[in-house]
Amino acid sequence: MDAKRRVPSVDLRGDDGVSVRTWADQAWPELADLAERGSGEVGLVPVGATEQHGPHLPTGTDTLVAVALCDAVSARTGAPVLPAIPVACSYGHGTQLPGTLSLTPELLAAVVRQYAEWAAASGLTRVLFVNSHFGNTASLAIATDHLRLFRPDLQVGSVDWWTADPVVAREAVADGDDVHAHRAETSLMLAIAPELVHLDRLASADDPDRTVDLVFRYTAPALSTNGVTGRPSEATVELGELVLTRTVDAITAMVERGRAEKPPLGPAPVPPFSPAPYPAH
Ligand SMILES: [Zn+2]
Questions:
Q1: Residue 30: what pLDDT?
Q2: Ligand 1 centre distance from Cα of residue 60 (Å)
Q3: Which has fewest Cβ within 10 Å: 7, 60, 193, 269?
């Protein structure tokens, strides 16, 4: 995918002209600084998805969004962007509509753990997973739970775009709590990759959020007629630029804080027992 080469319509570059530092474009000598004692660098991992996104957005929407966010933060901070995780956990979308690919939630958690452990082998001991898909949050929580207990030498966290900033958090749920292919996400895509948005389908793409007051959990075919939750017809480039800019600001601030962050009381000891093996699939 050529996602990381996309240039959003809003200028997200830093004032000092730092360019995107893409892990996979570097030769090993260019990554040697990560192992320098006290470098404190924070790596960014875009965590996306490949899944149906209603009739108007591409299946790679979440990956495009996650990569665009990480690239913009990297351009401001110089933080390296590791290869994206483009297929993640999309169980919530079921199999009715074409286009969805998924790992098991357990496998995604294992992939996230292994990303952090292998990045640390190159000296990158601080990693922030930048998530653009609601269905990945449980796996990210499981993975970071394992890591924080068994690898206290690492610092690993995750951030979801729809909660990174308070204004964005309000906009993200303006047309329903089930964030998917809706007003804010469609707006983001209008700002990031407008050529991939089917504008002619927007007006008829709305489908209401049917999750309000539900007690149990269901997959998309039980909740949505067309894979949409919300009102993409209300999407605008201006809203997309607002969401993009504020989210990039918030994640940039996290990277800057993360570079200097220490465990408040120092690193915890390693547990006196081994971690459970990675789950079988
Ligand atoms: Zn999405």
A1: 93
A2: 8
A3: 269
Distance 196 CA to ligand 1 centre (A): 14
Q: Is 49 inside a domain boundary?
A: yes
State pLDDT tens for residues 65-85: 999 999 999 999 999 999 999
Residue 55 resides in a domain: yes
Instruction: Say which amino acid occupies 43.
Output: G
- For residue 185, the enclosing domain spans 42-259
* DSSP 8-state secondary structure symbol assigned to residue 279: P
Q: Smallest Cα–Cα separation from 65: which of 16, 127, 111, 131?
A: 131
Distance 137 CA to ligand 1 centre (A): 13
Q: What is the pLDDT of residues 153-201, one digit of tens each?
A: 999 999 999 999 999 999 999 998 888 999 999 999 999 999 999 999 9
Kindly give the distance from the C-alpha atom of residue 11 to the centroid of ligand 1, in angstroms, as a whole number.
23
Pair of tokens at residue 36: 């320098």
What CATH number has the domain bearing residue 76? Answer: 3.40.50.10310
Q: State the distance from the centre of ligand 1 to the C-alpha of 188, rounded, in angstroms.
A: 10
The number of folded domains in the chain is 1
**How far does the centroid of ligand 1 lie from the alpha carbon of residue 68, in Å?**
13
How many whole angstroms from 65 Cα to the centroid of ligand 1? 8
